[in-house]
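Q: Joint fold for the lines below.
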Amino acid sequence: MQIVIGFLVLLLVALIGSHSLRSFYTPPPIIRRLFDNGLIFIAVGMAVGPAGVDLLTPDVLEKSGPVVVLFLGWIGFLFGVHLEWRRLRRIVLPMWTIAVGESLLTFALVFIGAYWFLANRLFLGHDATILFAAVVTLAACAAGTAPSSVFLLDDRPRFTGRIAQATRLVGTVDDLPGLLIFGFFFAFFPTYHVGPIAWTTGLALATLTLLLGVLFGILLKSVMLLARNEQTVLLVVLGVISLAAGFAEYIHLSAVFVGTIAGITFANLSGQKETVYRVLASSEQTIYVLFLMLVGCMWSFDTAHLLPLALLYLGLRLVGKVLGGMLGHRLTGAPPGRLRLGGLGLLGQGGMAIAMAINYERLYQSPISSLVVTTLILGVVVNELVGPSLASIPFGRALVRREDKP
Amino acid sequence: MRGLIVFAILVGLIYTVHAIDVMNFHAYGDEAIMVLGFVLLCSWLAGRLTARLRMPMINGYLLAGLFFGPYVLGALSARLSLFSPATIEQLSLIDGLALGIIAFTAGGELRLRELRARLKNILAVTLFQSLIVFTGVFGLLLILAPHLPLTAGRPMPFMIAVAMLLGMSAVAKSPATTIAVITEMNARGRLTTLMLSVTMLKDVIVLILFSVGVILARMLIAPEGGFDVHTLLLIAWEVIGSLLIGVLVGLALSLYIKYVGRELPILVLTVSYLATYLGEAAHLSGILVCMAAGFTVENFSAHGERLIAAIEKYSLPIFIVFFTVAGAKINVPALRAMGVVALLLVGSRLLFTFLGTYVGSRLSGGDRHERRLGWMGFIGQAGVTLSLALIIERIIPDIGGQLSTLIIAAIAVNQIIGPILLRFALVRSGEAGAGK
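A: Joint structure:
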């Protein structure tokens, strides 16, 4: 019970504190970014977790597992519900090539680099599944971009034309290739099996993962027809997401992935996407903040290999994004000059990267999982902090300051 | 029809997954969230179904919990029960939250102006109902005690103690059930106000009665223990302290709504949890704290409606989980074991509740609906009575187990028929839907 009380109190204090602080004090831009994207709550979580004053002990965090699973499904669903084919099909092939190409390029670079590092420096005779799970997670998280960070580029003077269009599309969909690989990895390399399983079984589990997502998307569509008001819509969405994420967790598949597929299915089959989105959005802040605080509690700097791995991860991701941006520049035929470095606008990371990291940690707990998760969260924080400044190189400085809520 | 199909799909799905042996490794993960999702959807659909059958939705939640719980499907095969003890424990975390927000709603629904005008009526019904139910059940059981298997051949003080404890258990009712049904039915009017007010007052009376009764029962069974003054002081602190702290919480909430006003749902949920669990640690009644807080916000600030709206936003999922888990805990074997005596207890409680409400209402000038239908709002029983059963089990080790089984069996019946009667009363009095 301690967990719920402690957590709610902290959340409340953090929320009220952050709102109150901002009402009478304007922090410097770099700190303001932490407030704007809610990452400050990771710091709050860290301060009260085992790495800080240990108010929320590891045992308490262990008990909060089911809540985390629900959040993973929620974040996946929220991402999936944006992927509506009716809108996406209007995008021409070269744009898709840019989005998928940039994502896969970054994935490949980080995959190779992380594999080299972990296999040579840390892989001390563990099962190969553990190594691959770590590497795939790092690469999948690196491949994506937070859509919110791309929307923030709208006020940059050179963020116009086809390059802006391509960047927006990339920001919307480039999490998907990494997420697909990540989701299917759970099917082919289950955590409860030493070594690889028969490919037919893996294929069956991969199909099951997809089918579960589709099934829950259809289920939500059907149940939504019975929901008459905001209260029941919230209930139905919460119920279906819990069920989808819970099923995935129960049979050791990715809750984020199943949630995403359910979201995609629902968005493309149901006419009530907007109703659901409104309800999701009204509770999004609370859930996101709770999730970030829990993530902060799990964060641990207690590893000697963090710095080299984090630097490698950040560096390779930067290279991947810049190269992907150059590909985009070439394919869109944008004017030469600084816009070639448009990939610097794709550095922002958000909830999806953190969700994949936590999903990985829940299923592949090992001596290196803590290192991987800490690296990924550190990566998210650094990218969120430096991303907007680096985006000024290709797109110029922001014309007006934005004040976005987390 | 669509609801039934979805219900069937959900049931099929969850049992299919339960039946899948993941790669023969038996390596299942945590099932709590999966069961939570199932509970939210299936119980809601079951609630819709019972609503069509002109029963309250909470009966659907209770029946879903009962059916998928350890005592119905679980009795056929342990694998069929969706509620393992660990899952029930995890889902029961929501109990404190549910009771807190229910109490907030109850307090927020009471308006001082209406109460002042009907104080005599409310006090009379509370007093006569409590008195007649207690003395009626106590007297009846005392007369029958020599013939009941539980007490036959025992000394008189022992029989008095047992009859007294059962009489006390009959006075207790479930505020959660009353408030959930009133909220569901959007009821408003004289009868609704009477039911809510008496429910609140009875909560205080039950608290006092339980504590004093347990001391007396202990003295009757083991006279060498003496009289415990400390417990009496604790009771006083529990009632007065809870009300005072509730008022302070309510004032703080009003100031918060006025000057900050953000994240109200989280605030209310936090305060509910804090009141319930920290209150327990400080010997306070969480329900009284929340009721007093809701009452203060409603009557001493202009923000009552905002508070209730914030609570209502998240209350449905919480109610559903709360009542489904309560349904899963309905002890069918206890009912089977104590069938006849339990039905006697239930029947006499129904009769004396009717008499108590009728007399109290008649003497204080209550209207026709209050006299004839008012008693129906006080039948449901749940957590409070259950805790009394557990206390009895502790203080009379000799037959405490059987006695608590009897009380639990009576709760099983009351918890099912209580909401149905309450709904009937609200519909018949024309107050259902008047709060829209």
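Q: Anything notable?
A: DSSP finds 20 helices and no strands in chain B. The two ends of chain B are 27 Å apart (CA to CA).
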